[in-house]
Design a protein that fits this description.
alpha/beta; Aldehyde Dehydrogenase, Chain A, domain 2; about 40% helix
Length: about 500
Amino acid sequence: MKLLDMHRDVAAFLDKVQGLRIADAQITTSAVFDVVDPSFDTVAAQVSMGTAADIDHAVSAARAALSGPWGTMTAHDRGQLLWKLADAIEANKQIFGELDAIDNGKPMHVARDVDAVYSARHFRYFAGWPSKFEGRTIPVSSPGKMNFTKVEPVGVCGLITPWNYPTLMVAWKLAPALAAGNTIVLKPAEQTPLTALYLADLARQVGFPAGVLNVVPGLGRDAGAALAAHPGVDKVGFTGSTETGRRIVEGSVGNLKKVSLELGGKAANILFADADLDKAVAGSFWALFGNNGQSCTAGARLFVHRSIKDQVVERLAEMAKGLSVGPGMDAKPHDLGPVISRPQMEKVLGYIDAGRAQGAEVVAGGARQGKTGYFVAPTVMQSVTDNMTVAREEIFGPVLCVLDFDDEEEVIARANDTEFGLAAGGWTQDLARAMRLSEQLKAGTLWINTWGDTDPASPFGGMKQSGYGREMGEEAMALYSQTKSVWLG
């Protein structure tokens, strides 16, 4: 195996303990935690461990920044800074790609050419919003009086991001929050803090005032919990598990802070007999195996019409066996990397064993791959029924469950029979059926004859226990702003 030559700036970044980014300072604490490369189960870096006291310090810095140059900056200038940050991300996409490959394990070329590039696009889209954030003049019935509205930032936003898309999920939250004029305390996932810290450095380099973006890595039960409960935080945006989302809500009640949540999923993907089979099989395959199955929108429950199930399963199994799996920084690009950690690998393997015990048949994969790192062989399971654990719970790994069905009404009911509602979709050449799916499937995002598409202009979020609030598009600006009504007499 030959690994890629590491960019010199990445090597320098990893060579020293990375401190918290608060205001103008990089603060190295006495307690540090290891950042593990999941491809090799080795320590890649050490990062200062933020605590509740550090969160308090960061919130104070963010609060002060609201009253400083950031608070008086024109909409035009705020948009220009967002655009400059987008340029800096794209100019340094190699560094983002390598850092994500090292602490997340995803193939470097994917982290560089997809995650980093789309993060830059996200900032560019929201760079246009500050100058278009307008209030209204309202014709009221009171004689001689005038009423108008002003749209203002919420204030200090606590953003808590997950490990599956370390750069992109930060961009999804950070860009609209900054566009609306807020200041930020960011708590990235402890498994993948590196690109968030690097992004904070770039933000300072391009001219963001001190205290606008503060990054405090640390454990969820300590720094994350403190951020959710802090009385100086006006808004929390969280992406992660449903269980943690509930704790975020509980922690927010002290000052009734605004909360938005993008939580877990168990997406139903329905393949009808009239579908374009080549397109549908390929699309359904990557709906699950994209990002190694570590996505809340993964098409984890693939319902296939009984008349075509056998040939679809055969093709899926063949594709899974043909995937290239290996380290994120391998000189030979791979299709998939490892899962994020040893506990996650053991959890995924446990789900596979539970599926077997309940009667599911493994037709591809089904075991750990290799002895080094946290690799799970891409797995396809058939003979899965709705009541099995693998069909009910979010696995968050490279495990595709195939279920069969007979008719449309039946499969829609089964698809909706879940506590989650983040994504769903189907494959059919019948336009009327496609419209029925769009009306009857209960999820925040639906994909018909495609899967996984997102755009900075298109809203994204969940229903039911997959959360509330919408990221991206105009709807995201509403998450990070508030409206003031002004009367003149």
